[in-house]
Amino acid sequence: MDHCSRDSQRALDLLKTARGQVEAIIRMVEGDRYCIDVSKQVHAAMALLKKANLIILKQHMDTCVKDAIANDKGAEKIEEISSILENYLG
Q: Can you count the helices (H) and strands (E) in the chain?
């Protein structure tokens, strides 16, 4: 997998932004900020993590899964994706 791709960089940027948001949320809790404001920021951080995860999974399918299928070794990769989807949907 190409970890230097544009998609990897986008995912990394989102993860770093989420990290900054989580650090800010911690400061909000420590500062006894209004609960609804904290909750909104938690939701925003979760949205960033979800978006980064989707980019990472798409990149995995575009690289690792395609390569495995081309080499007649796709069953394991497809099982991995199925397992992840089962966790998200179940």
A: 4, 0
Distance set, CA 30 to CA 23, 24, 44, 46 (Å): 11, 10, 19, 20
Q: How far apart are CA 2 and CA 6, in angstroms?
A: 9
- Find the domain containing 80 and state its range: 6-89
Q: How far apart are CA 38 and CA 43, in angstroms?
A: 9
Distance CA 14, CA 45 (A): 9
Distance CA 57, CA 8 (A): 11
Question: What pTM was estimated for this model as a whole?
Answer: 0.85
Residue 82 sits in a domain whose CATH number is 1.20.58.1000
Residue with tokens 């911690």: 26
Pairwise CA distance, residues 77 & 67, whole Å: 10
88 pLDDT tier (thresholds 50, 70, 90): confident
